[in-house]
Amino acid sequence: MRERLFRSFSPLFGLLFVVLWSTGFVGARMGLPHADPLTFLLLRYVIVLVFMLLLALVFKAPWPASPRDWLHIGVAGMLVHGIYLGGVFISISRGLPAGVASLVVSVQPLLTAVFAARLLGSQVGVRQWLGLLLGLAGVALVLWGKLGAEFGWTALIPALVALLAITAGTLYQKRYCASFDWRTGAVAQFLPVALFTALGALLFEDFRVEWTGELIFALGWLVLVLSIGAISLLNWLIRNQTAVNVASLFYLVPPSTALFAWWLFGETFSVLALFGMLIAVWGVYLARR
C-alpha cells in the first residue's frame, strides 16, 4: 500500500530530486573558498555517517545481510559519492565554473543509455533516444554563455572522471544492489567513502578549514539536503525506475542550477538559455515516457 502510494508520486519525487541535487553545485561554490575540497567533503561524510548510524540504531533498521551485500553497496557508494563528488569539488576548486561542471556531468544520461542495454538488458526506444539528445541540446543552450570561461585540463579532467563515476555507479547499483534500507545503506556507502576521502586529503591537502558562516551553512545544507534527502530519493528512484529514466533527470540539473545561481548570486541568462530549458524539459519528458 505504502509502496503504491510512493509510486503514484514518482514524477513529483523525480522533480524534487532535481531541485535538491542542483543545489549541490551552489553549496560547493559557497563553501569551497573556505576549505580544501576533500577536507570539506570529509567533514560532510563524517557528519552524515554519525547521523545515519544513530538513526539506524534508534529505529533498529535492517543491516546488509552478507559481506557480499556490504561490498556491492560500498562499491556503489564509492562511485556515486566518493569519486563523483570528489571530482566535481576538485574541478570547481581549480576554477571550473559550477555551470560548466554541471554541464559535463549532465552527459551521463547518454552514457547510461549506451551501456544500459548491454549491461542491464534495458530497451532504449527511438523516443527515448530522441529525448536524451534533445535534453543534451537543451543543456548546451542553457550554459552556452558559460562555456567561454577559461580553464585548463587540470580543472576539466576531474569533472570527466566524475561523469564516468556517476554513470558507472548508477548502473552498478541498479544491477547489484538496487534495494537496501536507506539508513543502514547510507552507513555502508559513506564509511568506505569517508576513509577514501580522508586518505586523499592526507596525501594532497593541508586540512584547511575556515569556520565562516558561509562554510557552516553550506556544510549543513549539503549534509541534510543532499547527502540525506537527495541521496535517499536517488536510491528510491534507482530501485523503482529504469536506469535510463533515472539518468534522464540529470539533464534538468544544469538549468535548475542556473536558476539558483541567478536567484542567489545574480547570474543572468539569455533568451537562448530559456529556450534551452524548455528543450531540456521536453527531452526529459520524452525519455521518461
Overview of the structural elements:
The chain has 289 residues and is an all-alpha fold. The chain has one domain (2-124, 150-241). Helix content is 79%, strand content 0%. It has 13 helices and no strands. The protein is globular and about 45 Å long.
* Beta content: under 5%
Spans of at least 5 consecutive residues whose pLDDT stays below 50 are none
The count of helical stretches stands at 13
Number of domains: 1
* Radius of gyration using CA atoms only: 18 Å
Q: How widely separated are the two ends?
A: 24 Å
Outline type: globular
Report mean pLDDT, rounded to a whole number. 82
In total, the number of strands is: 0
The percent of residues in helical segments reads over 70%
Q: What class do helices, strands and sheet pairing give?
A: mainly alpha
Order of helices and strands: HHHHHHHHHHHHH
Biggest sheet descriptor: none
SSE order and pairing:
Layout: H1 2-8, H2 10-31, H3 37-58, H4 67-93, H5 98-105, H6 108-119, H7 126-142, H8 153-176, H9 182-204, H10 213-240, H11 243-248, H12 253-265, H13 271-288
Helix pairs in contact: 2-5, 2-10, 2-12, 3-9, 3-10, 4-8, 4-9, 5-12, 6-8, 7-13
Concise overview:
The chain is an all-alpha fold. The chain contains 13 helices and no strands.
